[in-house]
Amino acid sequence: MSKARDLVIGIDCSTTAAKAVVWDRSGKSVAVGRRGYGLSHVRSGWVEQNAPDWWEATSGALAEAVAKVGADRIAGIGITHQRETFVCLDKTGAPIRPAITWMDVRATAEVASHGTPEVHRLTGKPPNPTPAWYKLLWLGRHEPETIARTAHVVDVAGYLVHKLTGEWATSWSCADPLGLVDLNRFDYDDGLLAAAGLDRSKVSRLLPPGAIAGGLLADVAAVVGLPVGLPVIVGAGDGQSAGLGCNVTRPGRAYLNLGTGTVSGVHADAYTHDTAYRTMGGPVPGSYILETFIGGGTQNVVWFAEQLGLPGNAAASPDRSAEAILEDAAAAIPPGAGGLLCLPYWTGAMTPYWDGHARGAFVGLSGVHGKAHMYRAVLEGMALEQRLLTDGVEVATGQPITEILMLGGGSRSPLWCQIIADVLGRDVKLVREQESTALGAGIHAAAALGLHADIRAAADAMTGIEGAYAPNPEAHARYGAIFAAYRSIYPGLSSTFRLIAETMS
């Protein structure tokens, strides 16, 4: 390889956009290309996507990024992607129907009938509608002609790899979230495939995360402006890739992604499964990520600002967002929000309860509370929930989590970050690179192409910290008492949530 080829591209094909970020050996972003695409909310709980949009956006983003730096310095391309989303293709590689996304929850009946402890043991995924396996069962029941015509079932990475290289390949850490992989063996489970009407000829070949899947096809190379045969590397799903981009590659470290939802993951060297987390194939071959998920994050914050508005006569402006004004008002409220607690289950509860009927709740409202109290309670509720989840992972694994590395849009809120540090009672560090998911793909590419010795060495060299929040001892003690009350809310309301769901069905 020419010494001039000192840059790699990390592709992140996410839920709403494809990004192509060019990284140097130190993890500095030197160019970015981006193209967006849409979602189709077919009916309540059904969320689909046009798979060719993934390719159109990815190829456009690649071409844009390459044009900014030139092709002669690019060593290869790494891929990460939205997890659990899949598409059924015919013999020509064309979609038979729209892709079904990770957000789609149509397969609740299949979860109830097929979500057994044995499936949990094999896949590491407690029964819930997110893994694709349940949706494939739904297709077999409601659209048998789709399964009959299917020649290939691919995750998003598998789809892009085929477009880029002509190979039907993905990594086990990309395919694992589909719910078809035995995580003890990092291989497909034939029983799960058969139950979905599939066999190994209809799924992508599994490679280790960070493996070279193939070289760039000539027609694609001409479109994106890169050399024919340029190596294409399969990484991991976006959650695991974000962890790699934060350098969560050793025990004791956890990432905390304050995005639309709140996702946290900790590295593990051995396979375990528990309802306290969902187990994913890790970004380092042979490793695992134990992941927790809150169905609320920045979407809760945005919802509050849009639906409930600003305190008093305040008004947002181009220089001051509604969230910034609410944060200033909430910062003046002492910890505990005047006795107001918020359960953050805007879209149901995943870890540790796995209850799709659960919903958000404000508990303790009185006449003394205003919008600033409620806004602070929203931020505190998500922090208290994260403490519940982090404590649960530590108890289930017997391993302490000593370091929290934070990223995502919510990490730009100083108040929220401080609340999290105070509630968890430990330092919270901000990662240097907010595009940590795409950086994870870049790290996989850099290691595969010899820019660094291996994946861990690449992560050490290409990641960093830019700030930290230390817990206030008095606030932590206050939140300890509040946490005892908070953790009793869901058990007390779970039957009520189910009755509400039955009433509204």
Query: Which parts are unreliable, with pLDDT below 50 for 5 consecutive residues or more?
Result: none
What is the radius of gyration computed over CA atoms, rounded to a whole number of angstroms? 22 Å
Which shape, going by the Cα principal axes?
globular
The assigned structural class equals alpha+beta
Instruction: Give the N-terminus to C-terminus distance in angstroms.
Output: 61 Å
Q: How much strand content do the residues show?
A: 15-25%
Q: What is CATH's topology name of the largest domain?
A: Nucleotidyltransferase, domain 5
Q: What is the class of the largest domain in the CATH system?
A: Alpha Beta
Number of separate structural domains:
2
- CATH structural architecture of the largest domain: 2-Layer Sandwich
The percent range for helix content is 25-40%
Strand order of the largest sheet: 18-19-17-16-22-23-24
Describe the largest sheet. 7 strands, mixed
The average pLDDT score comes to 95
Number of extended strands: 24
Helix tally equals 18
CATH superfamily of the largest domain: ATPase, nucleotide binding domain
Give an overview in words.
This protein folds into two domains: 7-246 and 436-466, ATPase, nucleotide binding domain (Nucleotidyltransferase, domain 5, 2-Layer Sandwich); 294-430 and 467-504, 2-Layer Sandwich (Nucleotidyltransferase, domain 5), CATH 3.30.420.40. The protein has 18 helices and 24 strands. The longest helix is centred in the last third of the chain and has 27 residues, at 371-397. The relative contact order is 0.12.
